[in-house]
Amino acid sequence: MNDKPSTEKTATYTLTDNGTGRTFELPVIQGTCGPDVIDVRKLYAETGCFTYDPGYTSTGSCESKITFIDGEEGILLYRGYPIDELAENSDFLEVCYLLLYGELPTLEQKQKFEHDIIYHTMLHEQINYFFRGFRRDSHPMAVMCGVVGALSAFYHDSLEISDPKHRMVASYRLIAKMPTIAAMAYKFSLGQPFVYPRNDLSYPENFLYMMFSTPCEPYKVNPVLARAMDRILILHADHEQNASTSTVRLAGSSGANPFACIAAGIASLWGPAHGGANEAVLNMLQEIGSRDRIPEYIKRAKDKDDPFRLMGFGHRVYKNFDPRAKVMEKTCHEVLDELGVRDEPLLDLAIELERIALEDDYFVQKKLYPNVDFYSGIILRAMGIPTSMFTVLFAVARTVGWVAQWNEMIEDPSQKIGRPRQLYIGHTKRRYKPLHKRD
Ligand code: SDX
Known about the structure:
Blueprint: E1 6-17, E2 20-30, E3 37-38, H1 43-47, E4 67-70, E5 75-78, E6 81-82, H2 83-89, H3 92-101, H4 107-118, H5 126-131, H6 140-150, H7 164-190, H8 203-212, H9 223-236, H10 243-253, H11 258-269, H12 277-288, H13 294-302, H14 323-338, H15 345-358, H16 361-365, H17 373-382, H18 390-411
């Protein structure tokens, strides 16, 4: 693989200033795949102009070797490997290793990595008391933001971000402890005792065990559900520079500690336009309630004056289909079969909603397709996971992506503190008016 992006092409930029045309050459950089990028780093110094791109629809913010998306073709690669091949053949911890280290592990590396993660799953006991400060009816994402941010108060020996060893220990801790914290947030909401992790279980098994077992009786993890959980984790593990990952990078660019950065990522993920969509999809399906009401909701989604949007539909990058949604739909059927659910009204409703939307001109023309969140909620609900925990699960899975991207950023020699500029449209300079002179 070529490490250095190629810079053979240039773009010419003409600034028409009071009729005097000034022309500038800008380098064009080519990556290994994907569109070329125009390097505007020297634009301001040379022309006195900024670029303006709200929502960063045309802006690359960093170099990365981790994840590639071709939104036109519906391709998603982690370190070059297609997502469907990983979902079919790999497991979540192997994918974590791949995202962190860039290559699939050998057997020995895999076993050591699994061991190292498993031996970081337990939390400092003092953290249990932290939970008592939350109301029982707190949204678990609120608890996640608080508790993950608070990890920096407990693990002082992994905060030195310039030390690769500290960074790796913090990364392992975050990947390992997220399921424990997530399950504790759930148990706290139920008023049940916290369940400690078990080192003899795999990562997804352990998560299901901590969520659903109680000290009162034995609990056996269903292997089909553990496999489905593992697959859901793989599908959500990374997705290049999405809102929460960009938040983690931006927070980290100031030198903030990893636990604080991941807490910032969790906060960003919570929004319904991002990771909160899986919860919103289920709420939407429940609100629609029956097939005959679908046209009413489709009409509302198309109405500019109505804030309602079809949750789980549309994507900034995918303009054909989201490859994760396809795997998710297949997994959904497998889980429902395993659980003997012959008739799941919400799944029927989702399939019908998808069919009607994909035949509608509005959705076709705007290239709006089901995204990763459209089917995940139905699977999670069938597994007994409450709606309020859906986005928490996304956060558990995405933690590896966040830490891999955070590590990559810190190791990038061109890394600088993130500091966008603005197009100012407020008042020009004016004089302060004393209170008695104001109307
Ligand atoms: C995730 O970025 C990532 O990679 C994210 C993610 C990841 O793994 O990290 O993939 C996870 O966040 C998935 C997305 C989950 N969100 C939803 O399902 C919420 C519903 N979808 C959207 O609100 C929307 O489609 C976004 C936020 C996902 C994408 O927004 P964009 O790229 O800013 O597009 P847009 O909102 O400007 O939409 C373009 C047009 C608009 O119409 P016009 O102004 O051009 O007339 O499409 C319309 C929108 O109104 N539109 C929708 C719609 N989504 C977009 N209309 C109805 N229903 C929708 N869902």
